[in-house]
Amino acid sequence: MGRVSKQLAALEARGGGRLGGYGGGGAARGGERFPLCSSFKVLVAAAFDR
After folding, report:
1. Which of 6, 19, 22, 32 could in theory staple to 27 by disulfide, Cβ–Cβ 3.0 to 4.6 A?
2. This protein's superkingdom (predicted)?
């Protein structure tokens, strides 16, 4: 496990969530899908509107 991977794992443990991203030739949780804030807000608003 590399330095960046360890830092991401520590942030995930402290925050109780998952982090993912890609760039610079590398990826963290690159095979997983994460909701984007812009599109996710519509789904949350629709759920609360019911």
Report:
1. 22
2. Bacteria
